[in-house]
């Protein structure tokens, strides 16, 4: 059961990226589950924080090419964290 809750925290990127890891982190009594829920929450928050920073940088940039570059960089960051969450969810299920 603890592997299922832990991996579900990572897989929640498909359906409830912030709500499920926060709920599991608060409610779960098992240290293993809480640690994975916290890691999943941080990995869900990372693209949001990067997006806000890149949005600020894009507005301060003067050229259209720079804005496109920031959008591409955000897409790479988001895709990387998406793949990371899937890999972590599978690894936790396999342990």
Question: Nutshell version of this structure?
Answer:
The protein is mainly alpha-helical. It is built from four helices and no strands. The longest helix has 31 residues, at 64-94.
Descriptive account of the structure:
The protein is built from four helices and no strands. The chain has 95 residues and is mostly helical. It has one domain (2-94).
Proportion of β residues?
under 5%
What class would the helix/strand composition place it in?
mainly alpha
Helix content: over 70%
Q: Kindly state the number of beta strands.
A: 0
Principal-axis shape = elongated
Q: Using only CA atoms, what is the Rg?
A: 16 Å
Largest sheet: none
Protein name: DUF4870 domain-containing protein
Transmembrane segments: 6-28, 40-61, 67-87
InterPro entries: MamF_MmsF
Subcellular location: Membrane
SSE layout:
Blueprint: H1 2-11, H2 19-27, H3 31-60, H4 64-94
Main location: membrane
Subcellular location: Membrane
Pfam families: MamF_MmsF
Quick tags:
95 residues; 4 helices; mainly alpha; single chain
